[in-house]
Amino acid sequence: MQLDLQQLCDQVAFHRSLNLRVRKSNGGVAFVATVGPEYLVDIEVETVHGGIVASLLDIAATFALIAGTDHDWVTVDLRVDYLRPVRGGDVTITGNVVRAGRTFGRSRAELVAGDGAICAVAIGTFASAAETRGAKP
Amino acid sequence: MQLDLQQLCDQVAFHRSLNLRVRKSNGGVAFVATVGPEYLVDIEVETVHGGIVASLLDIAATFALIAGTDHDWVTVDLRVDYLRPVRGGDVTITGNVVRAGRTFGRSRAELVAGDGAICAVAIGTFASAAETRGAKP
Amino acid sequence: MQLDLQQLCDQVAFHRSLNLRVRKSNGGVAFVATVGPEYLVDIEVETVHGGIVASLLDIAATFALIAGTDHDWVTVDLRVDYLRPVRGGDVTITGNVVRAGRTFGRSRAELVAGDGAICAVAIGTFASAAETRGAKP
Amino acid sequence: MQLDLQQLCDQVAFHRSLNLRVRKSNGGVAFVATVGPEYLVDIEVETVHGGIVASLLDIAATFALIAGTDHDWVTVDLRVDYLRPVRGGDVTITGNVVRAGRTFGRSRAELVAGDGAICAVAIGTFASAAETRGAKP
Questions:
Q1: pTM of the model
Q2: D77 neighbourhood in chain A, CB within 8 Å
Q3: Which of A7, A23, C36, C101 has its CA 20 to 30 A from that of D129?
């Protein structure tokens, strides 16, 4: 049975606060997030907080592995590269598996602004939690 | 004139939602955060979302550089290592400068749980924004 | 005047010991390296030392920025992900610029084995050394 | 039976070329390396190649885990931060375990120049290879 990614995503209150809409895409996942004013560093310039950018990338990278393997993964480490300030409102985040093994996996994520500019990228190492999610009914 | 770190921190709504209390400490900074249920992944086990852990470490690493140089810094890249799940409630995050140069700096952060266990560490590269914050009255 | 990448590469004895052959490729650079037995961890299984893998990725990422901007860059930080053991002999390493700014740049590299498998990837932050190389006659 | 770290280190030709002398130190390991001219980027200023710096840090971080657990570890990913140019000759590299679990470990390394300046630091994730080394007689 395939996991319902949107349902899985929406179980987490923090995810709901980011208005995440998830779909499978090109062998990975793609999210649209609508980032509200509560996550902007300075209302005047509407720049999304770096920690929220990291959160979005972490979520996309994790879900890429979940979508690719049909079980859960836990972030072991994550590197985020900030390339451009991210404006509030709608942003797209894609996640793609680099390699998924039995005990650990690697995946990447990219955050793209409304104008198509890549604003941030991430790569991380994840530990398989096959037993955790897979055991759930 | 020295920056008021708490005031600087509280300018950001997201920081206020984490109930951050900041002080200088051992040549760096130390924050106590009270992480509420809106940032937990699973209310039952009260684990803080990995993106919030990354946010707290990013904030502490950035403020370590701010406190050490009296001007602002922008995160260029950040690596987070997740060592143990983080329970909700009060956590302590310390930030320390590794090296602060004219154009870029490096700093580290650690998140320590109430029982003293180190739950996550981070290291990042930051770009000096001396002109941005320094120019402010 | 465009830089001669091969000549620039061969100025370094360590590069010569890796038998690096460099060319521009798809907006980035591609190297073929022939890794000799002095850099294998275990002669029996012919696995390239992880530090040599990191070296090859660092070189390719740096040269991607050099090729893209026609001036030198210095590695600020580098993350390497090891995906598969690398056999000795000929390997291909590609480097591509993620973003090159005035003071900072970001680039990626991938090491691909003879059978086409991606064995390792890297991403790093680099500081512009425009004045250093650019000032040379 | 405790592993002979120096013997383990010297099994690798690349390690021997770096003249590594290893000892246990403060709950971790410390190496002295003598970096010869073949690993310098520019003989004139005697700066050690960044890839060799990464190699030394990777070796120290790996051996910290080996010394702490008495079995082998494989590098999964590594982040290196370059803080200052490293002169050739004798350098000291220390490695310390951040956390060693059953399947994953994390450790740090620092490279210190003869004058005591910290020139580079690293942190990495490692996979346990208990069966590999532990099974050896």
A1: 0.94
A2: 77, 106, 125
A3: C36
